[in-house]
# Entry
Amino acid sequence: MSRRRPRGRPIHGWLSIDKPQGMTSTQVVSAVKRITDAQKVGHGGTLDPLATGVLPVALGEATKTVQYVMDAPKAYRFTIRLGARTDTDDSEGTVVATSGSRPATEDLAAALGGFVGEIEQRPPTYAAVKVQGERAYDLARRGEAVELAPRTVRIDRLALVERPDPDHVVLEMECGKGAYVRALARDLGEALGCLGHVVQLRRTRVGGFTAAESISLEALEQAVANDTLPQVLVPVATALVGIPALAVTEPQADRLRAGQPIVVTPQLLPERTGDGAVLRAMRSGRVVALARLDGPELAPLRVFNW
# Structure
């Protein structure tokens, strides 16, 4: 019996979508699939419905690289409302505590340093983290008690942008995987003794994807209608620019595609590449495989069928 051909068009690459407020990341993926009729679609990093900004969406073979994009550094610009805490740590939740205290701007700026570097952060109760197989937000919505353990996250930069009024502060943050803006707003408010929650949130960067280069769903529809979709697709190699590249020969490429390791010459390896490193095997400008260095061998982790 022959295998059933997948429905849709074989489109390969990434789209950097500027997610509109009010949509879930899953809804954006569904919209992209409907607009492009791509066979496979997935996103590289969830954004809350409240949030706008960069949502990388993978199509076709690019879906094999989602995890690597999700692990990439991220940047945000967000506004905290001081004086109240909500059960969701953002403005979509219910206020559970209030405070009449408001910190001086210089005290607020000084407190930011305590949240830079590797810190312990407890995810918001309404988070996509799984607890015994279920999403924490599903348990919370059913009224069940949710206790999420703190985790170590990395904050590379946290800067005060402006203080438009005593009740609001605008910050920018650059961070690693797993850091929650909502949790930071909650913890900063508690540290300052004034409480706080997020009222505006925009993701400005995910790895090599930036807000300036992202497109709206309306612009994507226009590109498909005008048959100019290739012009807005981001190549897989570009999305993986943070992973060192290694040029391979055609016979080596064939072995990697077949799931077999190849022997590499140490002198040809990228600088500062050690045992266990993940490399991007390239042939004729295309990614052949993502592979891990194991001594003298390069073993494929993900192979691409172009």
The mean pLDDT is 91. The first strand starts at residue 13 and ends at 19. Residues 21 and 50 are 5 Å apart (CA to CA).
